[in-house]
Known about the structure:
- The chain has helices at about 65-70, 120-125, 225-235, and strands at about 5-15, 20-30, 30-40, 45-55, 75-85, 95, 105-115, 120, 165, 170-180, 185-190, 200-205.
- It is mainly beta.
- The strands form three sheets. The protein has a six-stranded antiparallel β-barrel with strand order 1-2-11-10-7-12. A four-stranded antiparallel beta sheet has the order 5-4-3-6, with no helix packed on it.
- The longest helix is centred in the last third of the chain and has 11 residues, at about 225-235.
- The mean pLDDT is about 85.
Amino acid sequence: xxQGILGKKIGxxxxxxxxxxxxxxxxxxxxxxVTQRKTRARDGYDAAQLGLIEFLKPSRLNRPQRTRLEKHNxxxxxxxxxxxxxxxxxxxxxxxxxxxIFREREFVDVVGVSKGRxxxxxxxxxxxxxxxxxxxxxxxxxxxxIGSSAFPSRVLKGMRAAGHMGVDxxxxxxxxxxxxxxxxxxxxxxxxxxGPNGGYIVIRKAVHPPRLRRGxxxxxxxxxxxxxxxxxxxx
Length: 235
């Protein structure tokens, strides 16, 4: 089974969960189709290339892409991404991947491209504190000193300063799935995800989900202290 799916960000909303209000992001997840299979013998690793099915003119694709999709009688796909496979599972070109691979209370990682902010200053880009906002301060949102005058008499590489902000690949980990709508290919996750509304994203099963402990991850476990006391009492 493929360990993820492609989709589009619809927008944010809110819902009530377990008596408290929770922010949710609605995602149009799939439907997707397997367009290529990567094997360890031929490519050196196991993966499946997915394509997001949406209305697209075949003329929008170049000839190699169009020929490869037509070879397996697949619809034109604008977005193609590789995702890992579960151990021991198989995937063939033409197999569909739907949102029902996820279940409620499961944790997922969402990968997207952050919003572009253009040229941003150091306060907005790196959260610098800046100076006093009072009258006559003369130092409000300036970055401050960035180099030494004697040694090395230059600005060091990697200095946090003003510059281009956004349009970066961002991964938000361990977002909990609140609901899965298989009929409409909708997925609701708790929290925010990167990118604007309508932006393409990749949703995959969490690589390092939170540990199951008391009052977390939607499950309760045995308190080790109470369990040891019960064992001692029985003896």
